[in-house]
Structures are given as structure tokens and as C-alpha cells.
């Protein structure tokens, strides 16, 4: 096989560990950084170092957090009495950026997936349990993804909330606003039909 | 729009500067590194720093090079009298790994592309010129890609070599070994037909 010089090999190997990056892309990235954009390489090295040193997880909501006080766990948000559970940071950002919801969040950083060894412990559900038991919240909004695993997770979370007498809701799934029926997949359409409401 | 905390935003921005990485992939990469694989993040930061500090270009062949003496510019290789021009480092590695060629190389790090501002200066052709004039070489093997720009570059290089009385050859293009005619694109097939040889 092709063997690059030691440092170049190490760089290509390190780039390959990024999700979605295969051997060819890793090579192309390494050449681009070394040949075309050394500033980008420098910025990336620096951003990685800084992030590793300063970005942790919020002890309450598990979102990535740089400061002592998580911006998503303020007293004002807690006062809303609402707690929204999402699978990942991007989901939190989508709700925060696309809706007017300003309650608290809980970021699972995954979904229940027994086959992959992801159970309640991996998702911090003991922490969620204590928050549900605290009396701070009167509604748990479940915003896990509408996949098989997301639905199983939602079911599990709903049971947890009910056991603490916290009301449970699930965000609605169906035909996207502006979507045309003929372009919507069958599963979504079936879900939309069975979830129909009287008007 | 969604706004992440400052360091996380910087990390996502830095990842976006990698070729082929859009906003969604950059986000996914950042979350993966921070949440799942901090070792990979550490390795990448380190590999980038090391590479920037130690990887340069060989002053003779323009290949990436870490040491004083480029492994592709040895006296034994020069003694072959052959100089093979390729567009990029991956091309050099492909020839080195897939063939028994052990002559010298010259890596253009690009191809002539006047519209993109890439002319002879950007490809180090003055350096190639002096090597052709040195008397060290009796054959210039042109292995640029069979694209419009690669062909134009090949033509330009051939003229340079002829002016120095260095024999010129171009690697063969046609139907790949083991390829089936019906699956080969029309351009390749036309090239293969017009380049036919008596048997
Ligand atoms: Zn928080
Ligand atoms: Zn060299």
C-alpha cells in the first residue's frame, strides 16, 4: 500500500477518525490543509485544543457548556415548569432557534438502544428522574426523533414522568408544513392519518 | 439562527473549512469529538500541529517532505534519467504503490487553469525547466490527468521538454484493464479507439 511519511500518515489517520470521513477524503483534507490552507489547519488545531480544555457538559441538562452557569438552565427557564427532552445538541438548537420555547431542556446525548449497549445509565436518566421528582416541573415535553428507537425512548420517558405525576406531551409528527402529500413518505403519511384531529 | 457557545462555534467553523464539509457535517463532527471521542480530537490537534511544524515541500520535486533528504529525490532515482510529472501527491503515491517505476518525480500541486489564476509560476515550472536543462534526465513522463486541463498542462510540459531535447512520453489512457466495454464512458472509449495500435 501507499505509505506516506510518518507525520503525514498520522495526520491522515487522525482525520479519518472524524465521522463520515473515509481514506480518500482524509487524504484530500490533509493535502488541502498542508498545501492550500495552513491557516485553517492552525485554526482547527487551536479550536480543538480550546474546546477540549473548556467545553464540558452542563450538570443539569447535559448540553455542551463552557461556563459555570448553563444558559439553558437559568432560573427564568426553570420557572416555566416545562422540561423538554431531546436526543442531541443539534435538536436543542433546532427547537431553540426555530420555536419560541424557552423552558428547560434535557439532552440525552443518544437514545435507548440496547443492542448498542445504550441504556438508561448512558443517557443520564437517573439525573432526569431526580429532576422530575424535584417538583420544579409540571410538563415533560418529549422531542425524541420519530424513529423506532426514538419512539421506544419516548415511551420509557413517558412512564418515568407519569410515575412522578408530571404531565407528558410528545411533539406532533405528520406532514411537514408546506409539504405536499405526494412527496411525503408512506410512514409519515400513515402517522399523520392515524393522528388526525377533529376540526 | 442557532448560536452555539463561543468555543463550540469556533470549532464548528474550523471544521467547516475542511474540503467537502458542510455546516451539518461540521456540527456532527464537533459533537462526535466532544461527546464520543475526545482522544480523536486530541490526536487530530496534535497531528495538525506536528504537521504544520515539520512538513514542508521538497525543493526539488515539490512533494510533501519531512526530512532534509527527500526519499523521492535520491541519487539512485536520478540515475534512472526519468522524470515523471504528476498533478498531486496522491498521484505520486498511486504510481509509486501500483507500478515498479522508481525514477524521479515532479509534483505540480495543481494543473494549468488560467481561469483560476493557476499558471506556470503556481506550478513551479521554472524549477522543472531548470531540471530539464540540467542534463540529468533523458525522458519526461507526463502523468497528468486525462481531463481538459490535465491535457492542456501535458501539452505545455511536452513543449518545455522538447525545447530541451528531452524525450517526452505520456502515460496511456483507454479502457481499464479488466474493464468491460459496455460500462466504459464514451469519452474513454473514443480515446481508446483513436489510440489503437497495430497488433
Ligand atoms: Zn444546562
Ligand atoms: Zn523530492
TrEMBL record, chains A, B:
Molecular function GO labels: DNA binding; zinc ion binding
Keywords of this entry: DNA damage, DNA recombination, DNA repair, Metal-binding, Zinc, Zinc-finger
Zn finger (C4-type) start-end: 58-73
Sequence ranges assigned to domain Toprim in this UniProt record: 81-176
InterPro entries for this protein: DNA_Rcmb_RecR (IPR000093), Rcmb_RecR (IPR023627), TOPRIM_dom (IPR006171), TOPRIM_RecR (IPR034137)
Pfam families: RecR_C (PF21175), RecR_HhH (PF21176), Toprim_4 (PF13662)
KW Translocase (keyword) present: no
Keyword DNA repair tagged: yes
Highest taxon of the lineage: Bacteria
GO BP of this protein: DNA recombination; DNA repair
Main function: May play a role in DNA repair. It seems to be involved in an RecBC-independent recombinational process of DNA repair. It may act with RecF and RecO.
Family stated for the protein in its record: Belongs to the RecR family.
Name of the protein in question: Recombination protein RecR
Amino acid at each position: 500500500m501507499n505509505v506516506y511519511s510518518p507525520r503525514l500518515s498520522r495526520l491522515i489517520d487522525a482525520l479519518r477518525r472524524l465521522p463520515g470521513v473515509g481514506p480518500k477524503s482524509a487524504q484530500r483534507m490533509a493535502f488541502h490543509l498542508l498545501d492550500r490552507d495552513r491557516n485553517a489547519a492552525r485554526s482547527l488545531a487551536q479550536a480543538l485544543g480550546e474546546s477540549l480544555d473548556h467545553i464540558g457538559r452542563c450538570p443539569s441538562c447535559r448540553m455542551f457548556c463552557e461556563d459555570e452557569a448553563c444558559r439553558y438552565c437559568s432560573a427564568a427557564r426553570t420557572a416555566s415548569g416545562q422540561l423538554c427532552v431531546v436526543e442531541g445538541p443539534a435538536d436543542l438548537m433546532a427547537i431553540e432557534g426555530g420555536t419560541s420555547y424557552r423552558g428547560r431542556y434535557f439532552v440525552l446525548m443518544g437514545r435507548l438502544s440496547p443492542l448498542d449497549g445504550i441504556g438508561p445509565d448512558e443517557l443520564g436518566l437517573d439525573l432526569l428522574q431526580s429532576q422530575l421528582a424535584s417538583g420544579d416541573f409540571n410538563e415533560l415535553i418529549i422531542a425524541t426523533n420519530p424513529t423506532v428507537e426514538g419512539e421506544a425512548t419516548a415511551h420509557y420517558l413517558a412512564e418515568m414522568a407519569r410515575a412522578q405525576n408530571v404531565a407528558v406531551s410528545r411533539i406532533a409528527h405528520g406532514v411537514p408544513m408546506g409539504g405536499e402529500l405526494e412527496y411525503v413518505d408512506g410512514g409519515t403519511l400513515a402517522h399523520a392519518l392515524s393522528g388526525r384531529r377533529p376540526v
